[in-house]
Write a structure and sequence with these properties.
2 copies of one chain form a homodimer. Chain A contains 13 helices and 9 strands. Chain A is of the alpha/beta class and 347 residues long. Chain A starts with 16 loop residues before the first helix and ends in an 8-residue tail after the last helix. At the A-B interface, helix 11 and helix 13 of A face helix 11 and helix 13 of B.
Amino acid sequence: MATPGSGVDGPSDSPTLGHIREAAARLAGVAVRTPIVTNAALDALVGASVLVKPECLQRVGAFKFRGAYNALARLRESGETRGVLAYSSGNHAQAIALAASMLAIQAVIVMPSDAPRTKLARTREYLQAAPPGSEVVVYDRSVESREALGARLADERGLTIIPPYDHPDVIAGQGTAALELIDDAGPLDALFVCVGGGGLISGCAVAAASLSPGCRVIGVEPEAGDDATRSFRSGVLQTIENPRTICDGARTPYLGRYTFPLIRRYVADMITVSDAQVAAAMAWGIDRLKLLLEPTGALGLAGLFETARTNPASIAGKRVGVVLSGGNVDLDALPDLLAMAAPDPQS
Amino acid sequence: MATPGSGVDGPSDSPTLGHIREAAARLAGVAVRTPIVTNAALDALVGASVLVKPECLQRVGAFKFRGAYNALARLRESGETRGVLAYSSGNHAQAIALAASMLAIQAVIVMPSDAPRTKLARTREYLQAAPPGSEVVVYDRSVESREALGARLADERGLTIIPPYDHPDVIAGQGTAALELIDDAGPLDALFVCVGGGGLISGCAVAAASLSPGCRVIGVEPEAGDDATRSFRSGVLQTIENPRTICDGARTPYLGRYTFPLIRRYVADMITVSDAQVAAAMAWGIDRLKLLLEPTGALGLAGLFETARTNPASIAGKRVGVVLSGGNVDLDALPDLLAMAAPDPQS
């Protein structure tokens, strides 16, 4: 784990526990305070006491609502009257669309043409209640950069960009997931969190560092998109364009200006899992936890299973949190996804 | 609603709120206190404030664990040392198997050969930790009566029969679902509960009658197996053998000696829904609530949708509870089940 003074502290407005508590106050009564789910079969399988935070039960079906609403609510508080622009593989898009409609802020959402149908359809649905000028703009991931397209549209239309992860208010909002988990379940020995651009794990790691100082926060990434793991290990930002993985929420090409330093400072370790392991964890989670998970939503569970297999002593008898980040998967895509599963969720 | 004195009060040892509170004490720390799930899209769809009690998150994936554990724990307390016998289409079987292994009581479980594979496999799995002599006995629903077979085996082997619903300790255990829901969410205006043999709704209706006196408890049955609805309306016990419905947990042929009087006395109304409506509610619940539901587990939601369609004023703006009773469905059977869905969950 990097320590203060290692030159990776990040921007001066990097989020703190105070910002996460402010975000929690904004989200009270607006976001779902997702329950803690426990499961005796899971405990027996991994040899630990597992506390599951099912963000698939969050509004829009993913943790992303926390950060999106917090960022837009802060814009509202600051008297900012321009609309917003967001680019996203799906869940941030839905989250911004819903938050914008709730706060009556115009929103333009840039989404890849191959985003899951459900995510495209729901984003359009949420935007129906947003102010005029709100729309989804679809682009082709293979020919355009969403950042470039987003920047151009924001400039033309006078919109404020709310990036999907690299923004202090977004990170602070995501951190409320760990804040609630530790508030409700008590201190943890370890916490498994998926990593795409690192917004969720950054916020959760900042919260855990203060509220449960002994907690080892472990990031879990798909092995085809292991840029964050390699960045974490080398200390130098690594990039992967369009990684081929079923985890559509973790195809982000690199960590951010805020998230990379926070991860280096507050995350204990990073691990990777194969798509077959992700599919097996999805199947296990749906079949046994009875929670619908999208591939990225099962990354934390896949990481827990991988750890139980390769390093069981590190979690044996301990209190282990797992954030299941989302459940937005097309039901008709489910059989093919589950068919990719490794035969044993721990293999 | 039948009133006291209408001649339908049932046996003198019929469960009361006191028995349900005793059951809750036995289940504390043993059963999952399932969370309350809320969903803004559901509220918008039906025009009410909906409090969902997801018993798919219960141990063994269904509410049945509550009643089974309560009944076996009472046997243990009474010093009863014989083993137990249970017959069940699946969830009661798993529940007795798990409770028996936890309490070290021998258990013989009689199950139909066409029970969902998952339910058969899990029952055998749970029994592995139960005392010697414990086993699953499979029978053919088309040629044998489970009651007759169960009675014969119990007699031969000296076992105490724990029926799946018509038993005061089982009913009291099931009633803890409503006890928790009302404790956690406050008084309700209505509560939708599935009806097979009536154990869950009987216990829930007894709890609601005391804890939330204005709450109208509504039973929901598959229309192909509408014996309880016709019994409720006519006041005379009606029977249906082997009804053809996807709701394998609600193929029970008749209400019981305990459950029929309790339903007549404490349940406000009964409605029926088609299998297509059940499948649509399952699909909606999985897709939007992100909870895996078996067909019977979606009956309460299907009943809520049916009520929103045919009698919206009865729930408009009200606080409505829905018990989702279980989530034990074979994942490879899911596509065919969901394909049966009516196009609109409210149609």
